[in-house]
Write a structure and sequence with these properties.
There is one protein chain. The termini are far apart. The chain has twelve helices and no strands. It folds into two domains: 93 residues, Helix-hairpin-Helix base-excision DNA repair enzymes (C-terminal) (Endonuclease Iii, domain 2), CATH 1.10.1670; 110 residues, Hypothetical protein, domain 2 (Endonuclease III, domain 1, Orthogonal Bundle), CATH 1.10.340.30. The chain has 231 residues and is mainly alpha-helical.
Length: 231
């Protein structure tokens, strides 16, 4: 574990040197972040944002979303895709929060420890480790390391996690090997690397700042020879 932690920290430092310290959008209230993250599942950021903004325009309060006819919520979030799944999940989560807390708010999570808040959030259908971790990290400023498809792919190629480790276990693994103060920047910078360089179908390995420590690069470019200059 010590060697994995040392390597993970080295990856983090290299990406800070390459990209700098990242900043994401302004934090959303935790309930907004929860809904936004459910909408983000299996779609891109643009479609998520369009669906989220449309939902807020159609229903100015979360109580209105909670109590609206399901078909109207599904129609409002259609840009995010899978509306027949996401709409009912959002409404069920809103109803469950209201029933459990007596009000439609997640502000109380600020007073809980990270693990307690994570356990509370993941009781709802459609709220897995990644969704909960995003709410914790980006809305509540609590230590959590979300693992999305980019992070899972990149860390697998680098060899930063066990090859057969599933994505659910990867969340806790990275929270163990990285210091909490690195979670925010490491998460965002690894995602950026996955979107810009370590692409799913055709990674641009020669341009990667991590190529000297990457298992994938070593396996696929080990016989690569530098091009000779022509006179």
């Amino acid at each position: 574990m010590k060697s994995a932690a040392k390597r993970a920290l080295h990856v983090h430092q290299k990406l800070l040197e390459f990209y700098g310290y990242p900043t994401w959008r302004n934090p959303l209230p935790p309930l907004d972040e929860l809904v936004s993250t459910i909408l983000s599942q299996n779609t891109n950021d643009i479609n998520r944002d369009v669906a989220f903004n449309t939902l807020k325009e159609k229903f100015p309060t979360w109580e209105e979303v909670r109590d609206a006819p399901a078909k109207k919520v599904i129609a409002a979030i259609r840009y995010a895709g899978l509306g027949n799944q996401k709409g009912p999940r959002i409404q069920q989560a809103l109803r469950s929060i209201t029933k459990t807390r007596g009000e439609l708010s997640l502000e109380f999570l600020r007073d809980l420890f990270a693990q307690e808040a994570k356990a509370w959030l993941t009781q709802f259908k459609g709220v897995g480790p990644k969704t909960a971790a995003i709410v914790l990290q980006f809305s509540l400023d609590k230590p959590a390391f979300p693992v999305d498809t980019h992070i899972y792919r990149v860390t697998g190629r680098i060899g930063l996690r066990p090859a057969k480790m599933n994505v659910e276990k990867a969340h806790e693994y990275f929270e163990q090997i990285l210091p909490p103060e690195t979670y925010y920047a490491a998460h965002l910078n690894i995602i950026r690397l996955g979107r810009e360089i370590c692409l799913a179908r055709k990674p641009n390995c020669p341009a990667c700042p991590l190529k000297k420590m990457c298992n994938y690069y070593a396996e696929n470019y080990k016989n690569e020879k530098p091009h000779k200059r022509s006179n």
